[in-house]
Amino acid sequence: MIPPLGKNPPADVTRDAILGGRVALRQPARGHRVGHDAVLLAALAPQACRAMVDLGAGVGGAGLSFLARVSQARGTLVEIDPDLAALALQNVDVNGWAARCTVVAGDVLTLARPSGPAEPQPGAADLVLMNPPFNANAAHQISPHAGRARAHMAAGELLGAWVKAAYRCLAPGGVLCLIHRPEELGAILDALAGRFGAAELLAVHPRPDAPAVRLLVRAVKGRRTPSRLLPGLVLADAHGHPTAAAEAVLRDAQGLG
Question: In the predicted model, is pLDDT for residue 2 greater than 50?
């Protein structure tokens, strides 16, 4: 079913490409736009996965990047904003993946519940990608742009609720991949506790001498294995030029970890 446009469809839509041109994207010219986070998140996902759900998909950057990397996989993109969901569906069609990917305009918190949408079904996925809202309302000024505010603002318990939704969507042994701020490591591990284990943590640094700006986390449903820290990824050298490792992921579609 085509997600209906909301009351305020974006007036200006740009046509862009990511992953070295492998994924075409239509997205709003203003507000929250697809960047490195989506591609890095997709690169963290194991290539053996075949049934993916992208939570908070926006226009589909992460989920479609994964489908570009894994041609045998199928996916479901879940986005609460009906206008972004409509653009995600356009992006599925533009990339020729309508037979492999569906779009659900719905709330992540209702997934795999009797009152929620029919898809994704409980326990049917072997991979969930998750780029949850980053910032707590109490600690950060809300953006004047409504779309950006929705993408980046969240109540304190929202991370845990998204992890629970991922748990419901995944089969036993399924993989959760998420991207967040490094300072939220404690909250992430708390949210995973009792549901996910064998967590692998990978820090993303803008330069060799700079603190990490993102934390990638990959964990397995039902595991009890302790967490481990993977070698970090540096995006640019001291002169600002992209590193070979970053180019391999962001442009050449190579995986992480």
Answer: no
